[in-house]
């Protein structure tokens, strides 16, 4: 099965599946383990339940493509920190999802690692032709992989691209089963014990390889429950503001670490590479005021060129809804 077939099978049926739209007495939210963020402090302290006045169920996922499928089936109402590429893959296929905030920016925490035995770096990256790489298809890591290979002039059609969630990919490079790993978070950290990155976060940004996640949900759920979504985003913003104050670090870090399934040291090393834009920043032109929509279009075009998806939308303007976030700003 080729890359395009693998990718599209991951979101098969998403375009036409019905998502939960009616007001509910509870909400189910997707998130990632080993991906520490301030919202997890609020999650563990019951701040969301208190603000929403309803039960909040949390479900951990391995990839953003799995989040898309769960939102399509109605199992999930919101996804926290879904990567832009899987969001774009789903919406390009016709799934009616919307971005409601910028969850985190992290150019240094999503990358590709080359096995140390190969001794390949950015000056010899052309030698990656023909090599086997573990990539979670349709994710930010997949987008970064495509952009980096394009930059280095490596024809991906010569490579053996294997669809693996980051934990599986990290295990594979550790065992010598693949030549390169692409992924994020704790898996990236473990993979780097067995190899090296080709480009730093700053070098990737210079090439226009931005890496950020969004909070997303089915458009019909957001439309019918905009007050719930606004309250949810207000709690997230409160947690981010708390984390921005160094005085809260010692109290918040252990709670975040425990919920992430990580030790405190690893959590600190990961979260310190993250940037959590304020609500005011998110509503500017750089982010949800236009920048995010333009970036989504760019991601889609890269995937089309790579043959990973059939086509891009003319615009992704309707896939960004700033209404709940603007409302949250006044709460």
Task: Provide a compact summary of the structure.
By secondary structure, the protein is of the alpha/beta class. The protein is built from 16 helices and ten strands.
Task: Give the terminus-to-terminus CA distance.
Answer: 49 Å
- Structural class given helices, strands, pairing? alpha/beta
| Rg value | 19 Å
Which strand order does the major sheet show? 2-1-3-10-4
Count of extended strands: 10
Mean pLDDT: 92
Helix percent reads 40-55%
Please tell me about this protein's structure.
With 331 residues, the chain is of the alpha/beta class. The chain is 44% helix and 18% strand. The protein is built from 16 helices and ten strands. The strands form two sheets. A five-stranded mixed β-sheet has the order 2-1-3-10-4. Strands 7-6-8-5-9 form a five-stranded mixed β-sheet, with helices on both faces. Helix 4 packs across helix 5 (84-92). It is globular and about 55 Å long.
């Amino acid at each position: 099965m080729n890359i395009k077939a693998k990718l599209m099978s991951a979101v098969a049926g998403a375009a036409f599946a019905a998502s939960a739209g009616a007001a509910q007495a509870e909400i189910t939210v997707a998130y990632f383990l080993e991906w520490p963020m301030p919202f997890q402090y609020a999650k563990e302290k019951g701040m969301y339940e208190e603000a929403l006045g309803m039960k909040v169920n949390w479900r951990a996922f391995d990839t953003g493509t799995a989040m898309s499928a769960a939102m399509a089936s109605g199992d999930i109402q919101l996804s926290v920190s879904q990567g832009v590429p899987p969001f774009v893959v789903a919406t390009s296929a016709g799934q009616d999802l919307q971005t409601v905030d910028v969850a985190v920016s992290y150019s240094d925490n999503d990358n590709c690692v080359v096995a140390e035995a190969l001794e390949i770096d950015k000056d010899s990256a052309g030698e990656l032709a023909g090599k086997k790489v573990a990539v979670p298809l349709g994710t930010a890591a997949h987008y970064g992989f495509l952009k980096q290979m394009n930059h280095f002039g490596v024809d991906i059609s010569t490579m053996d691209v294997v669809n693996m969630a980051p934990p599986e990919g990290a295990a594979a490079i550790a065992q010598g089963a693949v030549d390169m790993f692409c992924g994020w978070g704790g898996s990236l950290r473990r993979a780097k014990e067995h190899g090296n990155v080709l480009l730093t976060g700053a070098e990737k940004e210079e090439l226009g390889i931005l890496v950020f996640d969004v909070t997303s949900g089915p458009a019909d759920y957001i439309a019918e429950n905009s007050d719930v979504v606004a309250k949810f985003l207000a709690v997230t913003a409160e947690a981010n503001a708390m984390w921005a104050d160094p005085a809260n670090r010692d109290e918040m870090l252990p709670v975040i670490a425990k919920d992430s399934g990580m030790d405190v040291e690893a959590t600190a090393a990961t979260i310190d590479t993250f940037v959590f834009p304020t609500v005011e920043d998110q509503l500017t032109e750089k982010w949800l005021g236009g920048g995010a929509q333009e970036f989504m279009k760019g991601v889609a075009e890269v995937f089309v060129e790579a043959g990973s998806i059939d086509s891009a939308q003319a615009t992704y303007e309707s896939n960004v809804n700033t209404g709940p976030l603007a409302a949250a700003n006044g709460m």
